[in-house]
Design goal:
Elements lengths: L2 H33 L3 E5 L14 E3 L7 E10 L3 H10 L4 E5 L23 E9 L1
Length: about 130
C-alpha cells in the first residue's frame, strides 16, 4: 500500500469517526426513550405518614366499604400490583386500590388463553389510601 493510499484511508476513517459519534449518541438516546416507563405520581394528603412494610399494605381491586381518604395516585406502564404496594408503603398508606385500564380480560375465553399476555395490562393505576 502506498503512502498516499494510507493517508486516504486514514482520512476516510477520521471522517467516519466524526460522523458516527453523533449517530451513536442519537441511537443511544432513542433506545433509552423507547424503554422509558410512563410514570406519574401525585400526592394529595396535607400531612405525611410514616412508611410501612409492604406486607402491611392491602392490595384492593375495588373501592373499600369502610371510610378512607385518598392520599396519592400512581400510574405507570408495565408495573405490577406489588410495585404499587411498595410505593404506597413508602408513603404510609393502609391500602392501594389497583386499576388496570384496558387489556385485562378473562383467560378462560378461548382466544385469550392463547395469548401470552393474557390477563395483563400495559398500564396500571393505583390510589393509595388511609383508612379513617
Amino acid at each position: 500500500m502506498t503512502v498516499s493510499a494510507m493517508r486516504k484511508n486514514s482520512e476516510i476513517a477520521q471522517r467516519f469517526t466524526r460522523m458516527s459519534r453523533p449517530l451513536a449518541a442519537a441511537a443511544v438516546a432513542f433506545a433509552f426513550t423507547g424503554c422509558a416507563t410512563d410514570v406519574a405520581n401525585r400526592y394529595y394528603a396535607s400531612r405525611t405518614y410514616p412508611p410501612k412494610k409492604p406486607s402491611q399494605v392491602d392490595v384492593l381491586r375495588r373501592e373499600p366499604v369502610r371510610p378512607y381518604e385518598a392520599i396519592a395516585d400512581f400510574q405507570s406502564r408495565w408495573d405490577t400490583p406489588d410495585a404499587l404496594r411498595e410505593k404506597a408503603a413508602k408513603i404510609g398508606a393502609d391500602a392501594v386500590i389497583i386499576v388496570q385500564p384496558g387489556g385485562r380480560y378473562n383467560t378462560s375465553q378461548q382466544w385469550a388463553g392463547q395469548d401470552f399476555l393474557a390477563g395483563s395490562s400495559s398500564r396500571i393505576c393505583g390510589t393509595a389510601i388511609i383508612y379513617k
